[in-house]
Amino acid sequence: MIRANLDMDALRSMVAGIELGSFARAASQLGRSQSAISMHLKKLEQQTGQVLFRRSGRGLVPTEAGETLLGHARRILALNDAALDRLGAAAQPAAVRLGLPQDFFEDVMPDALRAFAKRHPGTHAEVRAGRNHVLAQEVRAGRLDAALAFFPAGSDGHGERIATLPLVWIGTGAAQAIEVPLPLVLFDHPCLFRQSALRGLDEAGRAWRLALTTPSLPGLWAALRTGHGLTARTRHRIPADLREIDPHAHGLPHLPPIEVRLLSAEAPTSAAADLCAILRDAAERHLARHESRAPAEEALNHRKMQENGAVGET
């Protein structure tokens, strides 16, 4: 019979929470998020097959099984720490690997890494920019601990949904939207934004041409500024010198929304699990104001855009 190995970090979270009388205080002392501490407690219950805590008021108290494990946990941690002290061994800094689309490099990524560094000083973070299909493959293969990626709306089999964002047409002004064929500035293949834009135009019977393709988001914005054409993107961080084009006024198709999903490794380390929780919080905070509106609200917004000259500032 192969026995499970209890997670040392989870045991430390459990002991700290009980001794401090609060798992919130334990999170602060250990430099972790409260969601990471909750994941530790859940992991211990999964490993032992026992209910270890019950709710009492606003907090948690150990069950009989929890009290039993608590005594063993204190001895296990004491032996672990004594062995490291005796050998003069310092804990090796952990490493975490994060993947993101370029869209999130100026706000979500720095906020998440700043918060993570405060809780895990000295931990090496490896960050990669990538396409959605590549990021998903890297997480599945265990080469990334966490990633944010775009997926078609309703992709329930892929990670955790963070936000559903509308796709909009973006350019410098109205003139480009009436050109025939419509000039487009898009990522090169494969790209969900590209696929949605081309499918929408084809279904609407609108002629188009590829004016410029690039794998770079800064390159895409630069091409739009020089008047190369229009693109389809979310409202997240549209540069101030570019504009959202009203599809009603220019015969452009409405595009389906797109989801931002958090992908995580199947068996994350404690540092990676903490990174996921921090990344989720940062992404939700930055993307909340761009969430898809109800249809009635969208219609009202389009009417306001028309009244203001068909093109709205973002």
Give a structural overview.
It is a single chain. The chain has three domains: 8-87, Winged helix-like DNA-binding domain superfamily/Winged helix DNA-binding domain (Arc Repressor Mutant, subunit A); 95-165 and 259-290, Periplasmic binding protein-like II (D-Maltodextrin-Binding Protein, domain 2, 3-Layer(aba) Sandwich); 167-255, Periplasmic binding protein-like II (D-Maltodextrin-Binding Protein, domain 2, 3-Layer(aba) Sandwich), CATH 3.40.190.10. It has 314 residues and is an alpha/beta fold. The strands form four sheets. A five-stranded mixed beta sheet has the order 4-3-5-12-6, with helices on both faces. The protein has a four-stranded antiparallel beta sheet with strand order 10-7-11-13. Strands 1-2 form a two-stranded antiparallel ribbon. Helix 2 packs across helix 3 (34-48), helix 3 crosses helix 10 and helix 5 packs antiparallel against helix 10 (270-287). Strand 3, helix 5 (108-119) and strand 4 (124-129) form a beta-alpha-beta unit. Mean pLDDT is 86; it is low at 294-314. It starts with 7 loop residues before the first helix and ends with a strand. It has eleven helices and 13 strands.
